[in-house]
Every structure is written in structure tokens, then in C-alpha cells.
Amino acid sequence: MQVARTWLLRPLLRPSVAHNQIPVRLSSGGGLAEFFEAGRDPKSTEKIVYGRSWRASELRVKSWDDLHKLWYVLLKEKNMLLSQKQMLNSQNLRMPSPERFGKVRKSMCRLKQVLTERALELEDRTKRNVLKRMINSM
């Protein structure tokens, strides 16, 4: 029995989402809107000043819950920056503030450093090893 494989011979085409002229409505309640910076025109040339990275000394005084929340805030910021960079690259536009990647990365590394310090202070060896494995997988 011969199966028609004509669909295999067709070239795969990537949808051109970035060049689509249909306006996309992004709700402010999460979802897709969290992957793009709100209220920022990619063609704007004005310089916007952003915050600095977190210091390890500041992170050491935070609770476990605060560090957990901060990790996900930083992860969302990183994903938003990567999505924005991808979108701008597809439109041959430049990233407005590329130094933000370094600030987010530094903060994430320092957060992992503080968590590792806390894990090493634990006396229970099994808890320490479990926590170190969890931190290293981040």
C-alpha cells in the first residue's frame, strides 16, 4: 500500500509574525503581555534609565520566600528581554538597552550565590545536598 507523501515535499515556511501589520491586543492581566515591555515604542530613540542589579549583601537579608519570588521576577524579566530582542532582531531594529541583560544575569548569579551560602550553613547533610542540587539546576 502506497501512502501519498506530497506533504513531505513541500518546503516548511516560517510564519512572518514580526512583519504582520495586524495590531495585536495585549491584555494587562498577564499572558502574552508579560513577554513584552509595556508602553515602549521600539522605534523610540529616547534613553530610559533602568535600575541596577541586586547586591549580594541586599539579598542576604531577604527571606527564602522573598528570594523565591525575586528569582521568578528576574526570570520573567530575562524572558521579556529575550522576547523583545528576538522581535527587534526580526525587524532589523536595535535593542534599546542591552546592558539590562547583564544586570539581570548578575542579579540571578548573586541570588544563586546567596542560596548556596545558606545551603552550606545547613547542618543536616541530606538537606544540604538536596538544596545544592536544586540550586545547581536553576
Give the overall shape, derived from the CA principal axes. elongated
Secondary structure: helix percent:
40-55%
Oligomer: single chain
Order of helices and strands: HHHHH
Contiguous helical run count: 5
Percent of residues in beta strands? Answer: under 5%
* End-to-end separation: 50 Å
E-strand count: 0
Mean pLDDT: 78
Largest sheet, described in full? Answer: none
Rg from Cα? 21 Å
Structural class determined from secondary elements: mainly alpha
Short description:
The protein has 138 residues and is mainly alpha-helical. It contains five helices and no strands. The chain starts with 5 loop residues before the first helix and ends with a helix.
Structure overview:
It comes from Riccia sorocarpa. The protein has helices spanning 6-9, 56-60, 64-90, 99-121, 125-136. It starts with 5 loop residues before the first helix and ends with a helix. It is an all-alpha fold and 138 residues long. Helices cover 51% and strands 0% of the residues. It contains five helices and no strands. The protein has a domain at 51-138.
